[in-house]
Q: What sequence folds into this?
């Protein structure tokens, strides 16, 4: 066994041992022994993975239990990462997309079984339904097949425009304002938008978004020797499957609103969204309406992830029965290597495994 493997086993065993001694409701005991172990373990994993900066938040039923940032958001200028450091969240954008559309369904202005071609004619899959795009499925409704492609959600901008009060970008700005997500940006091009673009921010909003983007974590390419060199973000605008910029603190506010009945969605709507689609043989497929969904150690688990090539990665994991959510953002792809499209791949993440020892209740 390598020295690194031994270190991982020691950290994880110790963290698990202490976690078993903790009460079910940890609360915000920042000095709890398990938190020190978790901080040490996450920092060791970050260094091993070559991630320049990593921000983490653990969210309970009523608030943020713990948040912390590790490493440098800008290595060259030696700027430390913070919980309010903005990152590209890539594929996590689609949980916002799903929320807008499911709210339209709640209000009777949309059916998930409507065809995409009824909203936008020049699309590759005009007969695909909104439900199929959100679940990443295709084929007959009685025999769906799963294939995960966030870019497939792009036509949903037209659906949001048709059913919501605002355009897709406008809906995102309204959500940011309503939830006080003050360090989030609706796409990297927001400060430069001009007609005929939709959802153009006001001059003051453009200025504020520009100031936030000045603090954006620098993206990094990490080679096989775990050496990091600056790279470029791939996303250049906001789409239903990517381009949103946020912080772990702001995403925690979004998560808390999801848990608050009716604040964003009704409990029964969220429960349906967190129920995976099923194949013809009755077997659960990996994805629900905007979220991956499955079972881990007998408990429900839902998640979404994002990855920007040689630039960024993100992970948002909820244990509904524990009312607990784990949020991780990084400025390199390591959090999503390999892509966690199944429960087994998700819980294989060493970062998530150590966070699962943090019992919130």
A:
């Amino acid at each position: 066994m390598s020295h690194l493997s031994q270190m991982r086993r020691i950290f994880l065993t110790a963290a698990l041992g202490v976690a078993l001694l903790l009460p079910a409701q940890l609360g915000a005991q920042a000095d709890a022994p398990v938190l020190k172990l978790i901080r040490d373990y996450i920092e060791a994993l970050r260094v091993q993975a070559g991630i320049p900066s990593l921000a983490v938040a653990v969210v309970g039923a009523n608030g943020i239990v713990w948040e912390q940032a590790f490493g440098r958001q800008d290595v060259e200028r030696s700027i430390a990462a913070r919980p309010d450091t903005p990152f590209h969240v890539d594929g996590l954008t689609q949980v916002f997309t799903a929320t807008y559309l499911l709210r339209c369904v709640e209000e009777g202005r949309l059916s998930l079984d409507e065809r995409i071609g009824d909203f936008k004619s020049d699309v590759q899959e005009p007969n695909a339904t909104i439900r199929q795009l959100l679940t990443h499925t295709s084929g007959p409704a009685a025999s769906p097949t799963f294939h995960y492609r966030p870019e497939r959600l792009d036509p949903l901008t037209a659906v949001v425009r048709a059913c919501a009060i605002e355009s897709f970008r406008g809906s995102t700005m309204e959500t940011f304002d309503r939830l006080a997500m003050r360090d989030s940006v609706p796409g990297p091009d927001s400060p430069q938008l001009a007609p005929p673009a939709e959802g153009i921010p006001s001059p003051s909003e453009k200025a504020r978004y520009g100031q936030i983007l000045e603090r954006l974590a620098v993206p990094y390419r990490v080679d096989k020797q775990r050496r990091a060199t600056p790279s470029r973000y791939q996303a250049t605008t906001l789409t239903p499957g990517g381009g949103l910029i946020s912080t772990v603190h702001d995403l925690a506010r979004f998560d808390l609103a999801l848990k608050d009945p009716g604040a964003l969605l009704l409990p029964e709507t969220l429960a349906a969204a967190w129920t995976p689609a099923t194949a013809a043989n009755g077997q659960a497929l990996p994805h629900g309406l905007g979220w991956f969904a499955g079972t881990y150690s007998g408990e429900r688990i839902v998640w979404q992830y994002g990855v920007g090539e040689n630039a960024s990665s993100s992970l948002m994991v909820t244990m509904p029965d524990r009312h607990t959510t784990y949020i991780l953002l990084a400025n390199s792809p390591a959090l999503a290597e390999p892509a966690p499209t199944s429960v087994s791949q998700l819980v294989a993440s060493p970062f998530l495994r150590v966070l699962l020892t943090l019992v919130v209740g």
